[in-house]
Amino acid sequence: MLPRILLQRKLSMQLKTGWKWASLSTYYDSQSGMHVPVHHDNEVSAILSTDDWSQENMDTLANIGLLGIVGPNHHLSSSDRSQSPLDACRNENFSSLEFFLRTSSQAVIDVDVDIPKNVTLLFPYDENATEEISTQISTCVEQSIAATAIVCQDKEGEDSMLIANGVAQILDDTGGGKYVFVVGTRGKYANDILELCEELSYLDLAGPTMKSRLVVDLSANTNEECEDAAEECLMMGVNKFVIDEDRLNW
Q1: What is the mean pLDDT of residues 226-231?
Q2: SS3 state of residue 235
Q3: Which residues contact 215 (CB under 8 A, 6 or more apart)?
Q4: Highest-confidence range of 5-14, 19-28, 111-120, by mean pLDDT?
Q5: What angle do CA 49, 53, 56 make, to 5 degrees?
Q6: Residues 182, 213: contact at Cβ < 8 Å?
Q7: Confidence label for 6 from pLDDT (cuts 50, 70 and 90)
Q8: Which helix (H) or strand (E) holds 115?
Q9: Can you give the pLDDT at residue 75?
């Protein structure tokens, strides 16, 4: 295991400086016919998990080098006039951040909702609802509503290979999936994360590599579990992480 101080230094220094430069170099992907960003293994990106999307908190977070912020569930209804996480996303002062909004496999995507370009919608993977998820993501892609991501959780008794294959099928069918979030099980987090990341990394998809899309969620686990998972993921070249506010100085 890396000494704690070295892991902290690697994460904190690269969080502040690394991610902004990854998009400067691209390569041609023959499957998609597009130029896609090169994945830089040595650059670490962090996404903060917080339910506080207030103006004051966003002002604090906007300039500390985060890739983005993942926040509360949102129903994406044009009839909902209450205070919305989308209000923060529309603020030009926060245009450098990507905002990740959780939704569900049963959510109905309202095409009349004006979603800013820096928003990515998170859809939880469910092997029993792949058609519904595909429909939602296809709607977002075809109507240019928002970028999309799939959230995979390695649950007890589920096969990581089957999860990876199910995710690949959805992404192939829809052309979506800017990111794929990976969530493990508390108590055996590192093993779960590594197994699922490994299976997902084997996938050969059109567009950016799967490794460049992977985001490992460390926000709900202990420091020891996070350190183990982060260290192993970095060795695999997986370098995007969801963290909570307690780990901003990690």
Answers
A1: 79
A2: helix
A3: 47, 149, 179, 180, 181, 182, 240, 241, 242
A4: 111-120
A5: 120
A6: no
A7: very low
A8: none
A9: 56
Query: Tell me, what's the pLDDT at 122?
Result: 92
**CA proximity to 219, closest of 180, 248, 179:** 248
The strand ranges marked E within 103-239 are 119-124, 147-153, 179-183, 214-217
Residues forming beta bridges with residue 243, ordered by sequence position: 48
- Residue 138, burial from CB neighbour count under 10 angstroms (0-12, 13-18, 19+): middle
Q: Residue 63, exposed/middle/buried by CB under 10 A (0-12, 13-18, 19+)?
A: exposed
Rounded Cα distance, 232 and 6, in Å? 14
Confidence of residue 37 (pLDDT cuts 50, 70, 90): low
Q: How many residues does the chain have?
A: 250
Q: How far apart are CA 99 and CA 79, in angstroms?
A: 21
- What DSSP element (H or E) covers 70? strand 68-73
Predicted TM-score of the model (pTM): 0.81
Locus of tokens 């695999």:
236
**C-alpha dihedral, 210 to 204 to 171 to 225, nearest 10°:** -30
Tell me the average pLDDT across 46-74: 84
Do the beta carbons of residue 99 and residue 125 sit within 8 Å? no
Looking up tokens 């985060």, which residue turns up?
66
Q: Are residues 130 and 166 in contact, defined by beta-carbon separation less than 8 angstroms?
A: yes
Compute the mean pLDDT over every residue in the chain, rounded to the nearest whole number.
Answer: 78
Distances in whole angstroms, Cα of residue 112 to Cα of each of 45, 53, 126, 233: 32, 23, 26, 39
Q: Residue 77 — left, alpha, or beta (φ > 0 → left; ψ -120 to 50 → alpha)? A: beta
